[in-house]
Amino acid sequence: NLKIGVLALQGAVSEHIRSLERAGAESCAVKTVGQLEGLDGLVIPGGESTVIGKLMRKYGFIERIREFSAAGRPIFGTCAGLIVLATSIEGQEEPHLGLMNMTVARNAFGRQRESFETDLPIEGIDEPVRAVFIRAPLIREIGADVEVLAVYNGEMVTAREGHLLVSSFHPELTDDYRLHAYFADMVRQSRTGEPKG
Ligand code: GLN
After folding, report:
1. What was the ipTM of the complex prediction?
2. Per-residue pLDDT at 142
3. Domains present along the chain, CATH in parentheses
C-alpha cells in the first residue's frame, strides 16, 4: 500500500489527506519527524511559508526532509510548500529546504488578485484542472532539470524536478484530485524503482 504523509505544522492538511485517499493512497498527518518513517511520499501544504519554515527548523524537519528527499522519496509542495522547497526565494537571504532548483516570488499576483480560480491545463493531465490561487507564489527561474507542467498568463505555476512536484495553487480545495493522483503515480514509480532487497 502507498503511504503519503502530509506535513501538519500549519496550513491546509485534512483536505490534502482527503484528496490523497481519493487518489488511492493511504494518508496521515505528520507532526513529528518520527512520523516520516515508513512513508513513501510527503506533501508540504499551503499556509504561510515563514511560519512553516520556522516550525520545521524548531522541530528538526529540515535535515530529516532533506534525507527523505535524498533517499529518492517524492515530495509535493503546494503554494507555501512550493516556497519551502525552492533553492531561492526573492527578497530572502536563506531558503528553507532548498531542494528544488528554482527561484520563487512570494505573493506574486498582487493585491487585486489575492485569490482567484481558473481552469488550468497541466502537462500529463487530460483536461484542465480547476486551480484555486490564494496569495500565491510564482516560479521566476528554473534550473536545467526542472520541467514546467503549467503556465498561467505566461508565468510558471506547476513544475517537476525528478521526484519533486510543486504547484502555486491549492489542488486540495476542490473535488478534483487528479494532481494528487499524478503525485501518487510518481510515488508508485519511485517505489518500483527501488533496488530489490
Ligand atoms: N503567501 C503565502 C506565503 O508566502 C503562501 C500562501 C498560500 O500557501 N496559500 O507563504
Report:
1. 0.95
2. 98
3. 3-192 (3.40.50.880)
